[in-house]
UniProtKB/TrEMBL annotation:
Keywords on record: DNA-binding, Restriction system
Gene name, Swiss-Prot/TrEMBL: prrB
A biological process from GO: DNA restriction-modification system
Protein name: Anti-codon nuclease masking agent (PrrB)
Subunit details: The methyltransferase is composed of M and S polypeptides.
Cited Pfam families: Methylase_S
InterPro entries the UniProt entry points to: Restrct_endonuc_typeI_TRD (IPR000055), Restrct_endonuc_typeI_TRD_sf (IPR044946), Type-I_RE_S_subunit (IPR051212)
GO molecular function, one term: DNA binding
Length: 397
């Protein structure tokens, strides 16, 4: 016998009835007010849309605990469940989310959890999908004693809180490990650690090479050659995989392809601090791979001067970034000047030193990654447990 059935036998021996949602909740759609993005005044109060918080504004129209249900656009997930948000405190809601609150004989949290497992595909209509107020209120919900609702909510909330705590722990641990890694990378790669007499300007040890030239949007339809995208560079300190982006390259084109050990820089960005992010190409293969037009290559004249594994740390360390940021021009869009950058003077550590630093930082990186496999697996397990018990506790026939 399931736990739910035991609760029903104890607190509801004569059975229960099903009622329409309109008999279980109050609906507050008439209080919703949309605000165009350019009319919103920034503030501390959440501004909700169909799929959650869209912004923060300086005023509120609701104060309390409410259930928000997507009305149009983002209204249904991949399992045909409704898009729900449980909003508490002071907040604002636009006209893309229904706003409901439980009546006396129901608990808000019980209704929220019950709705979260429903298949609503038969009451969502149109393109884009829409769930009208009329269809929403026809949903049937079991009318059971508050005592049973409380027991169900208590168990589900315990799982929800545990999952939230694990996620917070993961975030905090990742931040700590990230700071530890940044500390050591900047300490080990502090320019004062190296011989000043063995420093050289970038222009004397390498050259700058452009990415793709003379390409338009049609060039990226049915492409025949791989290329490294801007996001590949921005999101990775090392390109150690064949990118799954393709561009059309003709045989008579003179385009520059990437070589093992090339250092790639994001040459342009809308954000000053994001300009000049570096990534190192560490693939050895015969297939030609090209580079997006918003990035450029720094290629060493002597391939033995810098280890590629060392470059991925060096060209992202604080001392180098501080010099690089002085080479950026622009007001609304920022560009990295290759001319200014060519005059940056950097230390050239011996290969033995480079290997030692790489060994230390690789170990620290592995240590940082451990948390990415440990806690997420625990969170996934807790999430599966929550869904299992939720489905069991809400399995009304």
């Amino acid at each position: 016998m399931s736990y739910l059935q035991k609760l029903l036998d104890k607190y509801c021996p004569d059975g229960y009835e099903w009622v329409k949602l309109e008999d279980a909740v109050e609906i507050f759609d008439n209080k919703r007010i949309p605000i165009a993005q350019n009319k919103r005044i920034k503030g501390k109060f959440p501004y909700y849309g169909a799929n959650g918080i869209q912004d923060y504004v300086n005023d509120f129209i609701f104060d309390g605990e409410y259930i928000l249900i997507g009305e149009d656009g983002s209204v249904i997930d991949g399992l045909n469940h409704p898009i729900l948000n449980y909003a508490t405190g002071k907040f604002w809601v636009n006209n893309h989310s229904h706003v409901i609150k439980a009546k006396e004989e129901f608990l808000n949290r019980f209704i929220y959890h019950f709705l979260s497992i429903l298949d609503i595909s038969d009451i969502v209509r149109g393109t884009p999908p829409k769930m009208t107020k009329g269809n929403l209120l026809t949903i049937l919900i079991p009318k059971i004693p508050l005592k049973i609702q409380e027991k169900i909510v208590e168990i589900l909330e315990r799982f929800r809180i545990l999952e939230a705590e694990l996620k917070a722990e993961l975030k905090a641990e990742l931040e700590v490990r990230g700071k530890q890694f940044d500390f050591w990378i900047n300490k080990l790669l502090n320019f004062t650690n190296f011989d000043k007499n063995n420093s050289k300007e970038l222009q004397s040890i390498g050259c700058f090479i452009s990415g793709l030239r003379s390409k338009n949007k049609d060039s990226f339809v049915n492409g025949n050659q791989r290329y490294v995208s801007y996001l590949d560079v921005f999101n990775n300190k090392e390109i150690n995989y064949l990118p799954n982006n393709f561009v059309k390259i003709f045989d008579d084109e003179n385009q520059n392809d990437l070589n093992y050990g090339d250092v790639i820089f994001c040459g342009s960005s809308e954000n000053f601090d994001e300009t000049g992010y570096a990534s190192v190409y560490t693939i050895k293969n015969d297939e030609k791979v090209y580079l997006n037009s918003f990035s450029f290559i720094f290629r060493f004249k002597d391939n033995n001067l810098f280890l590629p594994k060392f470059s991925k740390y060096f060209f992202n360390c604080k001392d180098f970034r501080d010099l690089l940021l002085k080479c950026i021009n622009g007001v609304t869009r920022f560009n990295l000047s290759k001319e200014k950058m060519s005059k940056i003077k950097i230390p050239i550590p011996p290969i033995e030193t480079q290997n030692k630093i790489v060994s230390i930082l690789d170990k620290l990186s592995e240590y940082s990654q451990e948390i990415n496999s440990g806690l997420p697996a625990e969170i996934e397990l807790r999430s599966k447990q929550f869904k299992y018990y939720r489905d069991q506790l809400l399995d009304f026939k």
